[in-house]
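tool=predict chain=A
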Amino acid sequence: MNPGLDALRADLEDAATHLGRPHDLRFKPMFGGLMAYFAEKPCAWLSADGLALKVAAADQEELLAIEGTRRFRHTPAAAPSRGYILVPPSLRHDTPRFSAWLARSALAAPMAQRKGPRPKTRPSR
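tool=predict ok
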């Protein structure tokens, strides 16, 4: 795997362990990066750009006030994300502070949609 993604993943794993919930964190490869889920809720996007934490609208200004944070962009020309904020290394490596943000992210995020088999429909008469 990508060494940069491995380091970002380790930061999230440290935060989840600090919360006493390492088993609640899982990752899914997606579009060349990793989508992170905490307690079955999407919480972060890990890519070559860094770790973008999913944050509730009410918490975004507080997180954006931390030096080095900025809104995530999927591509340089894309509009800034409304929910994902890139977290600087200084915050990611401060495990107690970062774990608090991970917990807030999990509280605010909706459950991930699980796709299952489609129900069989009856033909109309």
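The mean pLDDT is 87. Residues 3-18 form the longest helix (16 residues).
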